[in-house]
Amino acid sequence: MESKVRKQGDMLSCFMKICLTKKNVNGDGSHQLQKNIGDAKSLHFLTLDRNKLSGPIPQSISQIPSLELLDLSRKRISNSILQVFYPQVNLYYVDFSSNQFSGEVLTTFPTDIEILSLGVNNLFGALPTNLTKFRNLQCLELPDISGELPNSLLQISNLWVLNLRNNWLQGSIPKTISNLKDLHILDLLSNSLMGEIPIEFVNGLTGMIEAPNRIYFDFISYKAQMYSPDIALDELIVSWNKSKQGLSSHNIDMYFLLDLSNNQLSNEIPASIGTLKALKRLNLSNSKLSSKKLAILGDLQNVEGIELSHKKIYGPIPIVFTKLQQLTTLDVSNNQLTCMIAIDGQMKTMVDANFYANNNGLCGFQIRVPCPNLMKFRKQHSGQITF
Fold it and tell me: Is the dihedral of CA 192, 197, 202, 203 positive or negative?
């Protein structure tokens, strides 16, 4: 037996990459990783996402010094706590999302980590206060956390993606979140945040103002192209190019999202949100936010989705929305809008009546409600691009 184990260890030591995705491993879910997986001392990439492996992660996996990418997402891993990785491990990418990890959120990962995804587990507790040690962190996804957004999180200046959706965050959005000037994606959907959206916060999102004119090849996207072309941040589902998909690591630098929906935010929508011209999706629905001038969003030239349902929005749908050539979704349902829905430009493609529901003052072919003074309306607003 000892000889057999030694032979297995010798074989493992030769591997640089192990990829067992949903296409490779099936069965009844009783398969587990070998306890001596740590003998693969030359292993750089371990990808085991979406297969039917189950059980705990062997502790030896945290001792592989050359390991750079570790994807164990979408399985039935049931460790009671997260692994404590050796400081000398060169780990840059960790995806443990959609498993059954339990206990508090720990920060026992190498300090040079760039992508950390722990979403959809059974972890709990407040955000760790020592996140600043991850000075190179670019993507952070955490589940089931509570409390307020700590200042330590807002000091990680390299963050591109911050996904804290479906948590228990409370308090207001701190003005200091404007320190995260490189953010491309901020997803705070379904928390208990309250108060207004700070103007300083919006003005600080300089990374969302202008889309890049070239692809930025950081470490992760470069490695992903070489070894794992199908790596995706599956817990970050985005609407892009008329479909919903997990965001690929190739495209982190090309997608821009701001989602503050399903919170208790109030007061006016800041006009400065209209300056975030790189946004692909803006979701402010299901809150107490209000606005009488939706035309402030008319400059979002790259936007594909605007979701403003269940709010306190008054007045017309701006004609300037006809100029948003990439717009595929406009959800303004359950508001107090009153106008004829524009029939020109991009608005003539917005024909899902559900996205206009429960606005008693709307009319137009999109909702099959005729406008009584169509000719008068056209004469009054001929050539006008905004209200």
Answer: negative
Query: Looking up tokens 């999202």, which residue turns up?
Result: 257
- Select from 98, 90, 106, 100 the least CA-distant residue to 71: 98
Range picked from 111-120, 242-251, 269-278 for highest mean pLDDT? 269-278
Residue in this structure with the two tokens 């999302």, named with its chain if needed:
97
Model confidence pLDDT, tens digit, residues 194-245: 999 999 888 889 989 987 654 444 544 445 444 444 455 555 555 555 555 5
Q: Is 16 exposed, middle or buried (0-12, 13-18, 19+ CB in 10 A)?
A: exposed
Q: State how far the Cα of 73 lies from the Cα of 18, in Å rounded to an integer.
A: 15
The two tokens of residue 157 are 């200046």
Query: CA-to-CA distance for 315 and 294, rounded, in angstroms?
Result: 8
Tokens of 108: 């026992």
Q: Under 8 Å CB-to-CB from 152, ≥6 apart: which residues?
A: 127, 128, 129, 130, 131, 132
pLDDT exceeds 70 at position 294: yes
Q: Any alpha helices (H) in the chain, and if so which ranges?
A: 2-12, 199-203, 219-227, 374-381
Structure tokens at 10: 């010798």
Residue type, 70: L
Residue 333 contacts residue 354 (beta carbons within 8 Å): yes
3-class DSSP state of 36? helix
CB contact at 8 A, 178 and 159: no
Tokens of 301: 């030239």
With beta carbons less than 8 A apart as the criterion, state whether 51 and 77 touch.
Answer: no
Strands 243-248 and 232-240: antiparallel
- Give whole-number Cα distances, 40 to 1, 14, 96, in Å: 19, 7, 20
